[in-house]
Request: fold
Amino acid sequence: MSGRRRLGRWLRPEAMVRVLSFAVVLAAYLLTPVYHDHSLSDFDVFNTLQGFASLGLIALALGLTIIAAEFDVSVLGMQALGGVLAVKAGADSGLLGVLAATAACAFLGAVQGGVIAKLRIQSMSVTIGTYIALLGLTNVIAGNETLTFTNTGAAIWINQTVASFFSPRSLIALGVFALVMLVVGATRIGPELRALGGDRRAGRVAGVPVDRRLTALFAVSGALAGLAGAMLAYSNASASLNPGLGPLVLAAAAAVLGGLSLRGGRGAIWGLLLGALAVALLEQVFTVTALPASSAQIVFGSLLLVVVVVDAPDLRSSLARLQARRASMRQLPHEIKPKAQRS
Amino acid sequence: MRVALEQRFGPLAEWRSPRGLFTGLAALGLAVLVVLALTTDRFLTVENIKAILSSASIVGIMALGLTFITLIGSLVSLAIAATAVMGAMVFLAELHLGLVPALAISMAAGAAVTALQGLIIGAWGANPVILTIGAGFLLSGITTKASGGVIVQPAGGGYATLNSTPLGVPLGVYVMVVLALILQFVLKRTVLGRRVTLIGENREAARAAGMRIPRITAIAFAIAGASFALGGAFLGAFNKGASAQLEGTATFDVIAAVLVGGTLISGGRGSALRTLAGAIVIATISDLLLLRGFNTGAQILLKGVLVVVVVLATWVASRREGTA
Reply:
């Protein structure tokens, strides 16, 4: 309400993390001409947004589950399945392919979410299994071969330049973000989502339909990942059968840079958007500076390590304990220290 | 009716108990497996059984180590493949010192980088999944840089020993079985093993009992890291070289073996012998599908479904046991 309280909200560590990290990455991006022989052009912005289109929806799919204190590893499998389904079903109509991929992944996600909700089981273990199964299903459907997308019309359409910075692909990704932001921000879904992650039992008592929300959450997560896979396959004009762990790393980096707490219950969609944009910017910086892939791996790996340690629940208490011990050591006179008994 | 049935088969309630459910599912799965095995050509031959064991061995060695991470309540590591590749590279590069020193250095390196992750997780409660993804990515980047992006070649001939087949069975199979027995002993008969299990079962109780959780977590991770590197050394020896390409699907194969064995993912319940069984079951099923002409996609699909089913069954069983 008052100005100070508002300021206080912005100074909270998780808000600081997302604004600061985005600012640092943006600065690194804008300063590329200074430390590297490269002048920024419209095309750089376009490319950054293309990168965002590839990782943003996966980050959103994973991030929504993280806010609810779940962890959906199966987004990797949904992405692969979505790509193959879209390429198969979209040979004649690109739209049909995308719809088929999104709907199928939403359905599988709903089944998965229903089981997780019903059994009240930790989602990571189940989604690791479904991830493996989905990769298998993708291979079966594709006949163990990388599929080429024959609908060149749709492939060209999705990557065409719109208003010099955008493409239909990045606009769809941004539109989906806006839609989710609206739904989470303006309806009861937002607080309910955070209640799932914060204190699920209290949420249940307060009347949150926990099981239905969890089912819907995993359906949305599947749909987003399927859509991302479909659009990526169109854009590459081929569907890869195994995305590897890379997309999960980028999505997790976007989530933690976006200020999501890995313990759940905290986080906002706009933070997630900033996080995904920050990761896309970082990737673009690596591209224009021609940084080798291994260096990019080192940067993203270290980034995750740093953020996960800062996010660790026991870090503060253990540092405080250490400080207290040091302080008490200083106060103790030397004579009181126990001496070695052996002689 | 019920009385008659109970007289014959024991109390019905027992069949509905968690142990009963689990045993029932396992028996059903085994029955299907046996029928398939008997009706599949060339399955029940000595050569094929050797092939199954040898394909289980490398994943099995690494999965035995991962069991410690899962048991202590740190879920899984997603840095398995990266650690194994590092282990393979270090092993091959140090072979000029001889087989045993190269293996020792490789395992020590794997233990060190993994123990560090365990220390952070144990001391500060950091999220093990994200931490190990980050560590794995970092490790991959570093090993690619250190190797200059080329395939690391063996610096000596000692690697051939790892590919040897005493009495017709690959050495890796012996190592897997011996490792399983040693780790089973450590888990069930030593103080360390009891502590690992207790921390996984109830971290707060373990803390209240004054256990040094960071140190024990680091030791559990060190055991896991050493076995990832050992598996990697076998992988490198088999391929006569090591590069990032070696990572493949190792991480999820290893996780699948632990989970299919029936070790509870949230920790506190499981054993090395279960993991050994999990690795062998997965290898057997893959082999059966291969012999029956299914492609790799179907093998991966079935593996995933199996993981989901066993994870759910283990969870239901453990929960009922808890409330009973």
Remarks:
- Chain B has 15 helices and no strands.
- Chain B has a mean pLDDT of 87.
- Chain B touches chain A through 51 residues (CB under 8 Å).
- The CA atoms of residues 57 and 301 of chain B lie 21 Å apart.
